[in-house]
Description:
The protein has 546 residues and is of the alpha/beta class. It is built from 17 helices and 21 strands.
Amino acid sequence: MNPADTSDLWWRTAVFYCLDVETFQDSDGDGNGDFAGLATRIDDLAALGVTCLWLMPFQPTPDRDDGYDISDFYGVDPRLGDLGRVAETIRIAHGRGIRVVMDLVVNHTSDRHPWFVSARRSRESKHREYYVWRDRPPRGQQKVVFPGEEESIWELDERTGQYFLHSFYRHQPDLNLANPEVRAEIARVIGFWLKLGIDGFRVDAVPFLVTREGIADTQDPHSFLRELHRFVGRRQGSALLLGEVGLPHEEQLAYFGDAATELDLQFDFLTAETTFLAFVRQEATPLARVLAARPKVDPRHGWAMFLRNHDELSLELLTEGEQAEVFDAFAPEEHQRVYGRGIVRRLAPMLEGDPRRLRMAYSLLFSLPGAPMLFYGEEIGMGELDGDLARGAVRGAMQWDGGPKGGFTTARRRRLGMATGGYAPAHVNLHDQRRDPESLWSFIAMLASRYRSTPEIAWGEFEVHDAGDPRVLVHQTTAGDVGFIALHNFSPESVTVSLPALPEGRTATVLVEHPGSPPQQEHTTQQLDGYGYRWLRVSPTAASAA
């Protein structure tokens, strides 16, 4: 597909940035981030090279699950602002060329949502069938998502004497998506936010929307996603549906649908998890194997690439032995692990703050075919919070300057935590890094710029080369007569690898490489320092182009 013909597929080459409004910037000194504060920071995101802002839930909530327990789909948590502030933030972002997507959390509601409050009053409530009820839990029920915190996915409602389904926490009752009235309610919610200016949705916990008790066996479980896609397309043809589908690649294909009928973009969990295994082993082999086997998808579909996000680093797709390797290396303390499957740490401390390893990791992220996603604070190498905070450890306040409160708030008493020690604001903050051309922020801004100006990364035909050395990953994308080659050394030792000779009439230009890289005399012989990296663009020579 010609990139010139794909303006409506903007998300294929977007640079995503995920943030929680509550932890980003406080404008009024109450200790909470808010939309007014976020609006003042849009220029910082534009300078970094962000082209799509992903907002974590900001609707009214009891806040027992970091906002994913929503009590009003149409509102704004009063701590964060109001609809006017949201509209203003969207307008400012659009003015800087940044689209805005938001979380769509429709697997469940808060138990304080008016629908559920009504539903549990009586079995005859008009909202009763908005949720999934049983006289007794079925046999062979699915396992709990949060072992140690929940023992079952069914909870008895004492007043009505029936059990309700909750795939996650008991205070988050599952919506009955087999009910047409519920689907109509969800469509109204989507239409509302699209009208306000939202450019798409990150759909939360997608597999739970299609494979659970609330979908009748005789009903096509993917029908809901197809309805969602058709509705969004009718209301706003360029709007995005980005899905959280933590499954192996082959199983993810069903969630794209036939002929682009379901999700547009999916997070690539298997590649992310395998990347950390490769970091541990200091070998590219496991990652090369996964990337080589990743299914080719319709050009209208794509992958969202990430290293860390707002949740734990899940290792569910790795074998038990592989999980143990990653746990031992990156989460040696018990409080750094959750649910027996994930790590609650940020990337910089996991890589011991080593600038070489961090730069190699982010070079890899931006070089892989897919849309790169950053979690707030990654661009400056923020650390996680101390203590046994579970997933909250990676959700500290953004560090804008070197003051004791990191420029996040002027509140007398800081409500939200911040990293300490070598990752405290005095050592890690955006103000200092934006003024340092050698900082991690400057490096990631450069990568975002190179990525955006190299469309063949996203649109080219992808292949993995045998580097002849298990420590090095070499991959290539080719679009017409232009190609892109990336090399990444996962080990601390210098290496020399071989590349295939360039076709006649082609030349290779270096786009990105690690500082102090030795001059390359021949394209076929590439030298990389420890944790070194190099991006090459292959294009016709002036003579052949003429």
